[in-house]
Amino acid sequence: MDSFTELFKKEHMSEFILIILMIIYLVIGIKTPDLIATLIDNIIGKVVIILVIIYLFIHSNPILAVVAALVAFDLMRRSTESTGLGALQSYAPSEQKKMSQFSAYNQFPYTLEQEVVAKMAPIVRSGSSLTSASYKPVLDNLYDASPLNSSN
């Protein structure tokens, strides 16, 4: 209660006015301008806001610090809405979701074509020796054409 009565003293009137302005900001719900939203909606802007709130908790009236923390949270939320990054994070699929969908689409049953090809595959397996053929290939008449491996 001491913090509350201390706000009404003459030397702390600026803190009281600041609390009133912060409450008005929270109640009215003013849209954050795009320029300010882009400054706040990144890691550096959020760290600066958190450092300011910590500074207020250490060096000012606790009521001012609590109201400022609420305003900071709301300002970061409004900035995320204004820049559109919040919607992008909420609705855009992550890589894990995309990969699970792709793997679900790539699950095919063993088809008739695969079965027929497996049956038609040659008997030769890796590691087995081939027997020599019982026929001898014969080169047909070239009709005065030069062979392909000829140097002429």
Description:
With 152 residues, the chain is an all-alpha fold. It has a domain at 32-80. Helix content is 62%, strand content 0%. The chain contains 8 helices and no strands. The longest helix is centred in the middle third of the chain and has 22 residues, at 62-83. The termini are far apart. The mean pLDDT is 80.
**Percentage of β-strand residues:** under 5%
Number of helices: 8
- General shape: rod-shaped
**Structural class per helix/strand content?**
mainly alpha
Major sheet: none
What order do the SSEs take from the amino end to the carboxyl end, as H and E? HHHHHHHH
Low-confidence spans = none
Helix content: 55-70%
The total count of strands amounts to: 0
Q: Rg, please?
A: 39 Å
Distance from first to last alpha carbon: 109 Å
- Overall average pLDDT: 80
Note the topology.
Blueprint: H1 2-7, H2 13-28, H3 34-40, H4 43-59, H5 62-83, H6 85-91, H7 95-105, H8 112-120
Helix pairs in contact: 2-5, 3-5, 4-5
Task: Provide a concise account of the structure shown.
This protein is mainly alpha-helical and 152 residues long.
Could you list some keywords that capture this structure?
mainly alpha, 152 residues
